[in-house]
From TrEMBL:
It comes from the Eukaryota. This is DUF7806 domain-containing protein. One of its GO terms (biological process) is developmental process involved in reproduction. Keywords: Coiled coil. Residues 78-116 form a coiled coil. It holds the Pfam family DUF7806.
């Protein structure tokens, strides 16, 4: 294509001097043919060459014009395509910037939500700690009141035993009033069904302290706190004083048991967990329940919540 275009561009320069000669010769031949009725003679070889060259020039010129038109159309199409690509790239960049801004906003919202969640978690832990302290203080106060007034059941039994039997014939309004007071004291002292189990455990603890003769306020408070912890967690606790401060925790229904040992650290102590037996929870126990782990005091609520959830599933 390039070679043909070069020839077409150079060809007119070579042919221009020959065109007048060719046209003049053609006119003379036409005039001679009209004047002389003799048969026409064959054209000269030079004239034939000029005619062929002229035809080729015309064809090349036509092809050149067609090629230039195609080139212009192709250039216009390419320019339009380039403009469309530029518009598309600009639109993509704008969409990318919008998505980046939206992502940044979502990340900021996530940080704010995480901060609020941490604040709520901290407040919840503080409230739980305050509730536990108030429960301990209430238990100590109730225990001190019981020690000061004597055992409720013992008081009721002493009142009942010290009453002199009165025959129905000798009963007076005063004796009837005394009997009603005794019954009201019994109703006020005897716990209801919702607290019978805790009452029996507390009474057994008190009877044990009374028999041993060491029923002090401190030991009674310890007993109350022990019972409170067992009722909240739903497992039995026992303190092992042979190796520092260690707690043996067991769940009677499933047979699951483990040991919690307090380990002192420079930046604050932590709990060391070692399982003794998984019992019937072997199939549903989580992976960390089968390993020896350590956690801080702040993770204690989460630790016992996870264990309680597994115990409910078992």
């Amino acid at each position: 294509m390039a070679a043909a275009r070069t020839r077409s561009e150079n060809f007119p320069k070579l042919l221009v001097p020959l065109l007048p000669v060719t046209v003049s010769a053609a006119r003379r031949r036409a005039a001679a043919a009209a004047a002389d009725p003799s048969p026409p003679t064959s054209p000269a070889p030079m004239e034939q060459l000029n005619a062929k060259l002229y035809d080729k020039y015309t064809a090349l010129k036509r092809r050149k014009l067609l090629d230039e038109g195609l080139d212009q159309k192709r250039a216009a199409d390419i320019k339009e395509l380039q403009q469309a690509m530029k518009d598309w790239v600009a639109e993509l960049q704008s969409e990318n910037e919008r998505l980046i801004a939206k992502l940044t906003q979502k990340e900021q919202q996530l940080v704010e939500v995480q901060t609020l969640f941490l604040d709520e978690t901290r407040k919840t832990k503080e409230l739980n700690s305050e509730i536990l302290k108030l429960q301990c203080l209430l238990a100590e106060k109730n225990d001190a009141n019981h020690i000061a007034t004597g055992s409720p059941h013992t008081t009721a039994e002493m009142i009942i035993e010290n009453q002199t039997p009165i025959s129905p014939a000798k009963k007076t309004p005063k004796s009837n009033s005394r009997e009603r007071n005794i019954h009201s004291i019994e109703k006020a002292i005897i716990p209801r069904n919702g607290f019978q189990e805790e009452g029996r455990g507390l009474d057994s603890c008190r009877r044990h302290m009374s028999i041993s003769g060491s029923a002090t306020e401190e030991s009674s408070s310890t007993c109350m706190f022990h019972m409170l912890a067992e009722s909240v967690v739903g497992m039995k606790f026992s303190v092992n004083k042979t190796e520092g401060f260690s707690l043996s925790v067991s769940h009677e229904t499933s047979g699951y048991s483990f040991t919690l040992t307090w380990v002192d650290q420079p930046g604050g102590g932590e709990w060391s967990y070692q399982y003794s037996s998984l019992g019937t929870l072997d199939r549903i126990a989580m992976g960390w329940m089968k390993e020896d782990i350590k956690f801080s005091t702040a993770m204690c609520p989460v630790f016992f919540q996870q264990i309680s959830r597994i115990l409910r599933q078992g």
